[in-house]
Amino acid sequence: MDSYPTSGKDDRGEPDGNIGCCGYILMFFSICILVIFFPFSLVCSLKVVQEYERAVIFRLGRVVSGGAKGPGLFFLLPCVDTFRSVDLRTFSYDIPPQEILTKDSVTVAVDAVIYARIFDATMSIINVENAHASTKLLAATTLRNIMGTKTLSEVLSDRETIAHMMQSTLDEATDPWGVKVERVEVKDVRLPVQMQRAMAAEAEATREARAKVIAADGEMKASRSLKEAADIMSESPAAIQLRYLQTLNSIAAEKNSTIIFPLPIDTLGGLTRR
Question: What's the pTM value of the predicted model, to 2 decimals?
């Protein structure tokens, strides 16, 4: 993994501060300018960075040893030192919708959002040209690669797993850039219109089949209850007669009609006992 030197030497084995004879001569003239134009030179030499910022100082093109400066006040040598400030706050990116072909050959449009921050200002400057833009492009590519290994049902149901996989992959890839990916969220998964209709029809058929099973189960339980009630009533003829009268009363109340019994109830009871 490439990173900026931290052992006190640069890539060629020379000390970080070794800027050569010309460099020391330029530093001497810079100090002379600072002294001659004092205190006006302080306006150009003193810089301030905010609490959430760090300043990476370059002296004749080399990173000054000691790491990034800040927050607060720091000093620059005129005409020799330059600096770049880096924002360490968490930033977020909306990954635009990506047309992805899933493992089961279904085309879906997926968009996501990532939250990341720069944890090493020096690495984010010297190891990558634009840490923010590079992280955004890498996130879009990682989203397509991971979604391509999932089926449609996994994409719809396992969003948290997919987001965790994306976070791990991005965090590992952006570590040399000094970027820490803190969170990834899959925002939306859009299906083609034909697929939406097919899934809606499938869901409706599933609901109808489930309703039929529930209705059949209810009919079976009702039949068992009726059989048990009939067995109990068959043991008591008086119960049958009471039930018969109750039924006639219900019919009369609903239809508002007069009922004439052609036969006595006792005769009907004798017939039921045969």
Answer: 0.62
